[in-house]
Design goal:
With about 675 residues, the chain is an alpha+beta fold. Helices cover about 20% and strands about 35% of the residues. It contains 14 helices and 39 strands. The longest helix is centred in the last third of the chain and has 21 residues. It is globular, with a radius of gyration of 25 Å.
Length: about 675
Amino acid sequence: MSGVEQNVTDPYLWLEEVTDERVLDWARAHNAVVHERFADSERFRALERRILDMLDADTKMPYPARRGPWLYNFWRDAQHPRGLWRRTTFAEYGKDAPDWDVLIDLDAVAAAEDENWVWGGAAVLRPEQSRALISLSRGGADAKVVREFDLERRVFLDPDDGGYFLPEAKSEIRWIDIDSVYVGTDFGPGSLTDSGYPRIAKRWRRGTALAEATTVFEGEPSDVAVSAGYDRTPGYQRHYIGRATDFFNEEVYLLEADGTLRHLDIPSDASESWYKDWLLVRLKSPWEVDGKSFPAGALLATDFEKFLSGAREFEVIFTPDPHTSLHGYGWTENHLLLVTLEDVQTKLHVLTPSTTGWRREPLADTPPMATTSVLNLDPLEGGDEFMLSTSGFTTPATLLASAVGGQTEQLKQEPGFFDAAGVETEQFFAESADGTRVPYFVIRHRDRKGEPGPTVMSGYGGFEVSRTPAYSGASGMGWLERGGAWVMTNIRGGGEYGPQWHTSVQKANRHKVYEDFSAIAEDLATRGITTADQLGAVGGSNGGLLMGVMLTRYPELFGAIVCQVPLLDMKRYHLLLAGASWMAEYGDPDKPEEWEYISKYSPYQNARADRAYPPILLTTSTRDDRVHPGHARKMAALLEAQGHEFWYHENIEGGHGGAADNKQSAFQAALIYEFFTQMLIERRG
């Protein structure tokens, strides 16, 4: 028997009606309470203005996306809150004030069309760069409208004149050539998976109706998604199909000219990539093939054509160890660049293939307590050039340009947005319930050492998402400057120590994620960094589920909690929006044996009126079409009925990211830090 009754009628099911006026009135009423308590003071408004000024600042880094000779950038500032899509040359970008060529002014488009457009991305046709497929969402939702844009004439192409256009849906569309694309979208009843993503991939030729597109592959309704794509590398052109059977497993096929499929016989939970003659396979579980054993987390390389001919001759080009994992990799024209994590700190390496094997050398020095990322690799048009971006908790990002074997040049550096003088970063390890050492970073002023004080810890712990050091002006302004300490946790469920750091806590072992986070909370108190009544916690999405578990299972460890766009009703999560795609992570609550362990931690089913909970702020977005806003709404209503101290705020637009523009982002960030200031500093005296 599970600890939770399964057949209880949910009295708050009506709050799952996303845009019902009665529900929105309920949300607005709770918003008003939050505004009055936290957002109606000069201190709040001053912080909100500072954060907004940072987000709108002309001096912030214009991160580029390289496509051959062009550097593209999407830019928001005070004059352009919806944003500008623009491009420049490499030579111009290096200047203090580059001459940007504005391609799309989204504010002007939204005004002319009377739509609340939020930028969703651009797929530029290569190598011509004459057309782009532009994705736009209403209010920040995952579902997007796709429109073709002519980069030479600077106009959207009319679908009646042959321009590609997809109505609002969670679509996949990729260029083949200027007159054809692969597309997966809502083609009508039965064309989507249970998770709401494309089930069918089609080839669509210009000048024909979408209904006439040719089907190239169909998946099953229980799949997560199906997609098709095209590798345009000259001399190595390949069409391919991806069928994601669940969130972590995908079958990959090459699509032959006659329409037949050739399955790539590698583990479905591995990730594969290819470049010219090379096939790379990154393992997430141990693999035995051709009499050899390869460990989880390894990166393997083989000749692609020999592999297709049946050979299974792999060379291990990266092997993990207890402290080191592979964080990312990518090709230049002649080299493979690796980014590794050694106890959550990045190292860079360059691998060079030859007829005698792979040579590995250090690529560049990386600073401690920081994250260095490799950006803008373009092996087909960019040679061996690349960019590096480095930032730490108190160090704004620096962007460098380099090439394998060449000199490194600083391109840009962001300004600091808060007073970081005297603020230091330390790394500690806590011991979880099963003896696992779990790392975390503490960022605080050196004067804070020696006595416990207000502290906020953040966490995620899922889907193999690694959390690494990064600059946050908002937390600096809103928390560190107010004397607080900030903690970033690296609990299991992430990928900081390779795939096993994640796979070891899926489904029935999910409780270990929560044990890790609670162990860090206890370790912070043991070290004298904080006390339970001065300790806050914050997390969103899967991290919002983490916060819900902390509230209902470990309430004595915390003085306040912020729970953002969360999953909370784990009995119904798989029935709401994209929830079905996450059953590989959490389990299927409709299976009694899996509900048995899910029910033990599901926050909505485990909230109790007779337990003392710390104050909690729940936030969500009406336009979130990934994690249903009903999770946060129902939990707020339940806590209210049980008499707990809670606050609830719903952004009526903004999607899963929570905000549709910088103004909304600034408000939400200021709200979090004002909440923690009142709960952990002023209330505790």
